[in-house]
Predict the structure.
Amino acid sequence: MKVAFQGLRGAYSEVALLRHFKGAEPLGMPFSEQVFEAVEKGRADYGFVPVENSIAGGVGVNCDLLLARPVFAVAESYLHIEHCLLGSPGAALADVEVVYSHPVALAQCREFLNGRHIRAVPEYDTAGAAELVAGRMDKKEAAIASKACAEAYGLKVLAEDIQAVKGNFTRFLAFQREKEVPKGLKMEKTSLAFAVKHHPGALLNCLKRFADHKINLTKLESRPIPENPFEYVFFVDFLGGLDDAQVKEALAQLQFDARQVKVLGSYPLGRR
């Protein structure tokens, strides 16, 4: 089974997918768009992308792609993010003067870095930063990445779990082509996107449909619609599957005040 993800060896997405899909063959892609293309064209059985972080919030590009592409989310998975400081094999923590990583990872480890007067330099992603440091093997340089990156790139773990907030989780969605969604899929949670019609109270009425049918929303986020400046699409997660009678009724009534409604997926609840 082939599973596409965005990133290099040792990326948090690869760590998470290997925990979720035992024995899968990970296919790393430079960009999220290529992850979706791999699934759509049949080069991968599943795509696996992060959609939100408990500290940084939603991953906009992946939410937008789930809306735009003909795919369906069939599973969610959580990964506890534990940032590590990785250096060359002969380095010590006291040697490090510069650290490379994704801007979000750098921000989450700011206290650790500032306390040691280490200069932070943004890189495209965490695994890419580890690869960069491994290629230079300079004792003064380090990367913030997963522990898996240390093994993947021959680096030394200089410090573990260095983020300020220890309860740091990233939520991922696994998706397939719409026509390949397995029959009998256990549906306990649903992801939905919709825009609202232009009349007073439209959004309030949409949200009331869920409340009236006792559906618990776990996420509500707005994203701009690039083709329509200053108009927005709303991303909603709620407890309940598409096969639930109350959910079916709520979605039917949603049409009165919403437009461009798309179910992004319905899947079993992931465990943290």
